[in-house]
Structure prediction request, 227 residues.
Amino acid sequence: MKADEKQLSYTTVNTYSTLNELTDHTKYVWVVLHGIGYLSRYFLKYFDALPKEEHYIIAPQAPSKYYLNEEYKHVGASWLTKEQTAQETKNVISYLDAVLEKEGMPSDKELIIFGFSQGVSIASRWVAQRRIPCQKLVLYAGSIPNELTASDFDFLNEYGTEVLTIVGNQDEYLTKERREIETTKIHELFNGKAKQLYFEGRHEVKKDIINNIEFGRHSSKKRDYEK
Prediction:
């Protein structure tokens, strides 16, 4: 039997979640990308201790939802798999573009891109492919895709972007060999300018780490959405 796989384009609808209100008092706008098994509305709980008047959090929703166990009660989601990764990446990035456009990023706010676990691959691809002028890029317990190179991130120097990587020293998905590879990769991709933070813990999001991220660094470079 010979089966043909064909392709088509169609319009779809997805959700995203937000935390707090975007006002004149807001200083920081976050786009936070969850890992496998999350729904965006629940991922927001890790950011609810940040000062509400200063921080506005946008949590996009991974498109591929599934039941987490055989009880068929709890639902999670995934951004990508190894199946048609290139095309699915384009779909996801188009969705993230739409979210940012819908929210209308104000020019007087600092933009923080945050990815956890699988969300790291999405955050890094989105920032690199769309040249997102963020003030902070936070990559938490995940791997940067191998297809990305240092030249993909050179533009961040123009904006004075701070790159922060975070990982637990007992992360069950990170062997000693893998940690060394990732550490070298991060150093090369960001020309030694990324800050690498290790904490006591496993593959988990810790609110106290998020709450203690330093804020307030502004770049003099004019951002794309200010032009």
About this structure: The chain has one domain: 16-67+74-213.
